């Protein structure tokens, strides 16, 4: 199935209000990573994530803003169905302007674990380099599964925690990936 998936950069005209209609964000989390006394630990924490139609519209609007400010959106399709997407902001930040942010990277629930996220991540790394970034900055979902993915693609704890990003989702784990 992985070979049937196509990944590419998306233009603003493709970010229609129905772009995420069939996308399934659903995720059950049973354990999470957290930081305590500067150490990473695991604890039980059961919750579900899902996106309402209103939340999907908010995400589409954020992706449009990303494009209008010079960022990049990439997406994956299985035939004509959207199965994953990610975006890179164009602004560089950090003490040496080394970071470029990866705000979103999602694969639809039904086909996670098939390499689609890795393809999207790789495309995002290429785009971040094009922007002059030295590192990707990721505020990653704390679930064991999400953290395993980011570890598998070479991410590590962020050397600098960017306060304004941390405050958006204080439970997320702040990561970076050297480009």
Automatic annotation (TrEMBL):
Annotated Pfam families: Acetyltransf_1
Stretch forming the signal peptide: none
SUPFAM superfamilies named among the record's database cross-references: Acyl-CoA N-acyltransferases (Nat)
Example GO molecular function: acyltransferase activity, transferring groups other than amino-acyl groups
InterPro entries documented for this protein: Acyl_CoA_acyltransferase, GNAT_dom
N-acetyltransferase domain ranges (all copies): 35-179
Superkingdom classification of source: Bacteria
Protein's UniProt name: N-acetyltransferase domain-containing protein
């Amino acid at each position: 199935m992985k070979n049937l998936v196509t990944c590419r950069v998306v233009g603003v005209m493709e970010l229609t209000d129905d772009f995420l209609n069939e996308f399934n964000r659903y995720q059950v989390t049973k354990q999470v990573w957290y930081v305590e006394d500067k150490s990473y630990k695991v604890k039980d924490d059961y919750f579900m994530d899902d996106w309402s139609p209103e939340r999907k519209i908010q995400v589409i609007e954020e992706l449009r803003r990303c494009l209008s400010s010079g960022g990049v959106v990439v997406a994956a399709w299985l035939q004509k169905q959207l199965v994953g997407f990610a975006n890179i902001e164009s602004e560089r930040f950090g003490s040496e302007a080394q970071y470029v942010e990866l705000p979103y990277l999602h694969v639809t629930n039904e086909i996670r674990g098939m390499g689609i996220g890795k393809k999207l991540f790789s495309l995002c790394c290429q785009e971040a380099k094009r922007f002059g970034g030295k590192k990707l900055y990721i505020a990653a979902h704390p679930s064991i599964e999400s953290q395993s993915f980011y570890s598998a693609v070479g991410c590590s704890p962020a050397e600098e925690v960017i306060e304004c990003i941390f405050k958006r989702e204080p439970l997320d784990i702040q990561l970076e990936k050297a480009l």
